[in-house]
Amino acid sequence: MDERLRDRLAEPAALGARRVALGMVAALEDANKRRGSADDSEALHDMRVALRRLRSWLRAMNDVLQDVGNKTRARLEGIADTSNVSRDAEVLLDWLRERVTALTPRERAAARHLVTILSERKARADAQLQE
Question: Domain limits of the chain?
Fold first, then answer.
């Protein structure tokens, strides 16, 4: 067995759990950095997946990571809630854009109005996420 692996296996559980959590935080940060890029349509999804994995890990390791406070967990929950608004708007916008050509002229006008509203909602949620 590799010496480095043997050392890792001998570490306290809390240290190993922290290493995993920090890797998840890094994945979350990487996906968040990609979010502003127009050519990366999966960045928000990847960020939400990384966030969900981190929150699940923290719940699973609650006994070992007792010092991860309620404030941190509440902040992560708030980020998840805000990302829900952004993702919902993103999905609905994509759905509308795919179907706009099949609509009647009157329906297209309504769809354009809805696109404006959803785009503003998404922009507000994205700004909140950035904060």
Answer: 1-68, 82-131
